[in-house]
Amino acid sequence: MLRPIALGIYLLFFAVGLVGALVIPTLSLFLANELNVRPLLVGIPFAGIALASIIYNQSIGYWSDRLADRRPLVSSLCVLGAASCLVFAFSRQYWLVAGVAVVLFSLSMVSFSQLLAYSLDYAERCIPLERIPLYNAVVRAQIAFAWVAGPPAGFLLAAHAGFKVTYCLAAGLFAVVALLVVRFLPRLQAPRPFEETAATKSPTTMAPLSWKPLLLCFCAFSLMWGANNAYLISLPLYLDRELAIGSEWVGWIMGTCALLEVPFMLLSGYLAMRIPVLVMVRFAGIAGLLLYTGVYFSSELWQLFSLQLCNAIFIGVLAGLGVSVIQQLMPGRSGSASALYTNTTHAGALFSSLMVGLVADYWNYQTVFLFNVFLVCLAIAAFAMVRQPAAHPERPA
Fold it and tell me: What sections of the sequence does the record tag as coiled-coil (predicted)?
């Protein structure tokens, strides 16, 4: 009975990831070409989405841990997402589109962190403790699969069928997820008695948190995701303006990395049954150092392709096991844990976007990768100060 539930969770994560992969990469092109706005106005909705997502994720995540059932919340958020995509499809008024993107679309993306929270709840109740990191890695791999196919499909649809068809398809996917969440996923049982005494004590009284390791992990993950975001922003312009290599090669480079990420996600989840997850994440930081140092000194296309092996290790381990680190530090608080981890990506996107603009303006895009090396060094140092959390009590047979 458990296996179909897990398969359903995997399918829903792929669907939610596919919606994001269809909408987010094409949104800047939609604003610039379809609404004909200047670059500054293109950036405003993205900054607003990042800020709003941080607020929504943390506040809703904290509140959701007191809900008896997350499914109606996930379904409602997906309905808001469908409505947002329909506005994108049929409106050509910039401020309406920007307002909906910041207020509603960012709220709908909380469905990802809440679906992740449901997944963590399911894992804590139904999966052996030593296999939870592997399960989390498989869940995150569905997002990687979605991002292999989603962006190319989104750009092809936008180019040949138009943005109206693209965003109507995204709205339809949101609606399907909203229906499947309440129709397919079961309501989870209350925590087992040993979990209640070890982690939660009662639905409203939880074990106290250790804030220092949480703060260190939040900063470290934000630095790593910020370095990744700066890389994604800078690489196309670096290839085009400084290496005189066509920016169309970026799609092939990123596609190569996405394909390599999946096996490393799964492998990291398997190894995490034998190696502490913090050790694995620190190893990912070393791969990040090799990646950004290599890109800084690269001048040929083949060198950039070969470095995607380091990129796949960096992102695969970070995405596959990052939530497991936070989950171990916040037992019994799946909603808060998933929201906190998701917010590290938004925090990283905020400060790295500003960093890219300042560094590239004063120096060049190549120097951004040198700053990335510094960011990853800080992240590794922060992780070095975090002790491995004590394991949960063994599950009774």
Answer: none
**Does some domain include residue 311?**
yes
**Residues 227-241 pLDDT 10s:** 998 887 778 778 877
Contact 177, 15 (CB under 8 A): yes
Rounded to an integer, what is the distance from CA 134 to the centroid of its chain?
17
- How large is the average pLDDT for residues 330-340? 74
Please report which helix (H) or strand (E) contains residue 165, including its range: helix 163-184
Residue 100 inside a domain? The answer is yes
Distance CA 201, CA 337 (A): 18
> Do 47 and 349 contact (CB within 8 A), yes or no?
no
Distance CA 250, CA 232 (A): 9
Distance CA 81, CA 178 (A): 10
Q: How far apart are CA 378 and CA 224, in angstroms?
A: 9
How many independent structural domains does the chain possess?
2
Residue range(s) defining the domain that contains residue 41: 2-189
Shared domain for 184 and 294, answered yes or no, is no
First to last CA, the chain: 18
**CA torsion, ordered 114, 120, 123, 125, to nearest 10 deg:** -90
- Tokens 């139904």 locate to 126
Structure token digits, residue 149: 């196919």
| Cα dist from 365 to 131, 231, 248, 377, whole Å | 42, 9, 17, 20
pLDDT in tens, 281-324: 999 999 999 999 999 998 888 899 999 999 999 998 888 788 78
Say if residue 136 is in the same domain as residue 259.
no
Which residues have a Cβ under 8 Å from the Cβ of 305 and sit 6 or more positions away?
Answer: 253, 256
